[in-house]
Amino acid sequence: MEAGLPGGGWVVAGISLAALLVFGVSVARAGSPASASASGWLKTAEIGGVTVLTNSHGFTLYWFAPDTATRSNCNGTCAAYWLPVPGTPTAGPGVTGKLATIRRAGGATQATYNGHPLYTYIGDTAPGQAFGNGLNLNGGLWHEVTVSG
């Protein structure tokens, strides 16, 4: 005689399958070209009535409150969810702030805007989303990069 919940094996199998699916989507998204800024080109878009900075694919860019103008404090697991924008940025339509770069702890170049290292959020799965705005994760607050006209 088996102990436990009848049909419990199916529940565990379903949960395992769901977890595997989420993992697969996360891995695919992390390697997708939309997660990084193609050729460092940045532009603006209106999202939720606010003009924000986006990468060339239209994904919202974020800044992390604990960062400084010369140092990213988002590394390791943090950088798996908040993907650093690599390379030297180029101003596209509507971008009027100061673009520059910093060197990350591992030596990679990361784009900055008005002294803020730039990131995309893995939770934004399509252009025009800003699900990372206002989140308090990975040791600090995350904000969409706003652009004033």
Quick tags:
149 residues; alpha+beta; three-stranded antiparallel β-sheet; three-stranded mixed β-sheet; 29% strand; 11 strands
Could you characterize the architecture of this molecule?
With 149 residues, this protein is of the alpha+beta class. The chain has two helices and eleven strands. The longest helix is centred in the first third of the chain and has 23 residues, at 8-30. It has helices at residues 8-30, 77-81; strands at residues 41-47, 50-55, 62-64, 82-84, 90-91, 99-103, 109-113, 116-117, 119-121, 136-137, 140-144. A hairpin with a 2-residue loop joins β1 (41-47) and β2 (50-55).
Short description:
The protein is an alpha+beta fold and 149 residues long.
Let me know the number of strands. 11
Based on CA inertia axes, which overall geometry fits? globular
Q: Indicate the mean pLDDT.
A: 83
List the secondary-structure elements in sequence, H or E: HEEEHEEEEEEEE
Q: End-to-end span in angstroms?
A: 72 Å
- Which structural category fits the helices and strands? alpha+beta
Radius of gyration of CA atoms, rounded to a whole number: 18 Å
Portion in strands? 25-35%
Characterize the largest beta sheet: strand count, sense, and whether it forms a barrel: 3 strands, mixed
Query: In DSSP terms, counting alpha (H) and pi (I) runs of 4 or more, how many helices?
Result: 2
**What is the total number of structural domains?**
1
